[in-house]
């Protein structure tokens, strides 16, 4: 009896545009990795950059130019939650932890979440910093 491979729930191309050595095509990301890539894209996309969907993304860049403190960290957590509530139905956020890292002049963000259709809890971490 043949072992059945688990069905892929979500898939996307790899935004690093790496080449799959077997197929010589662009690599793909599947399931949790595809969703994490979409989460990162959502957070780093500013409003008015996606044609015909001006409110796609998040206004995090504006918050990064506010004074670095716990109040701004709470605002960032709220903006992250709103972005996922509005644009990412595959993600159920359990907890958002945002804290300022004064030494690196950035905010550390950790999202504890579940992907719809995947049993195990997941963690997504990133750093938000100003570019100018």
How much of the sequence lies in strands comes to 25-35%
> Largest beta sheet, briefly?
3 strands, antiparallel
End-to-end Cα distance: 60 Å
Rg, Cα atoms, Å: 17 Å
**For the largest beta sheet, what order do the strands appear in spatially?**
3-4-5
Return the string of H and E elements. EEHHHEEE
CATH topology: Nuclear Transport Factor 2, Chain: A
Question: Which CATH class is shown?
Answer: Alpha Beta
| CATH architecture title | Roll
Q: How many strands appear in the DSSP assignment?
A: 5
How many domains make up the 3D coordinates? 1
Q: Can you give the mean pLDDT?
A: 90
Q: What does the overall shape look like?
A: globular
Determine the structural class based on helices, strands and strand pairing.
alpha+beta
Helix fraction by DSSP (H/I, runs of at least 4) = 25-40%
Low-confidence stretches: none
Kindly summarize this structure in a few lines.
The chain has 132 residues and is of the alpha+beta class. The protein is 27% helix and 26% strand.
Describe the secondary structure blueprint for this structure:
Elements: E1 11-13, E2 28-30, H1 31-43, H2 60-63, H3 70-87, E3 91-101, E4 106-115, E5 122-128
Antiparallel strand pairs: 1-2, 3-4, 4-5
What does this structure look like?
- This protein is α+β, with helices and mostly antiparallel strands and 132 residues long.
- The protein has a single domain, classed as Roll (Nuclear Transport Factor 2, Chain: A), CATH 3.10.450.
- Helices cover 27% and strands 26% of the residues.
- The chain has three helices and five strands.
- The strands form two sheets. A three-stranded antiparallel beta sheet has the order 3-4-5. The chain has a two-stranded antiparallel ribbon with strand order 1-2.
- The longest helix has 18 residues, at 70-87.
- The termini are far apart.
- The model has no long low-confidence stretch (mean pLDDT 90).
């Amino acid at each position: 009896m043949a072992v059945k491979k688990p069905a892929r729930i979500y898939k996307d191309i790899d935004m690093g545009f790496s080449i799959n050595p077997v197929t010589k095509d662009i690599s793909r990301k599947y399931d949790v990795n595809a969703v994490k890539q979409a989460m990162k894209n959502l957070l780093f996309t500013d409003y008015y950059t996606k044609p015909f969907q001006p409110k796609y993304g998040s206004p995090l860049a504006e918050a990064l130019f506010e004074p670095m403190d716990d109040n701004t960290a709470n605002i960032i957590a709220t903006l992250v939650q709103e972005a996922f509530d509005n644009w990412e139905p595959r993600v159920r956020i359990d907890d958002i932890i945002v804290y300022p890292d004064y030494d690196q002049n950035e905010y550390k963000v950790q999202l504890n979440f579940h992907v719809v259709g995947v049993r195990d809890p997941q963690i997504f971490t990133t750093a938000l910093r100003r570019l100018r």
